[in-house]
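#help-structures
NK: newbie question, is this the right format to request a structure? protein is Histone H2A
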Amino acid sequence: MATPRSAKKASRKSGSSKSAKAGLIFPIGRVGSLLRRGQYARRVSASGATYLAAVLESFLDRFTILVVS
């Protein structure tokens, strides 16, 4: 017996973003695409985009603490 399409859609695993997997708020996908589009290097690794997003988020966090206090 075939299952209805709605049951198949409900059983699919929902995707999670790279930012959610890394525990960041900054969008890793957007940072990576901007790195590639900016032609800073011939190749940009996925871990490079993750690292840069983490550094930017850390910098922004420390900057907001200084401004607020």
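mod (FA): yep, format's fine, and the tokens are attached above. The chain has a mean pLDDT of 85.
NK: thank you!
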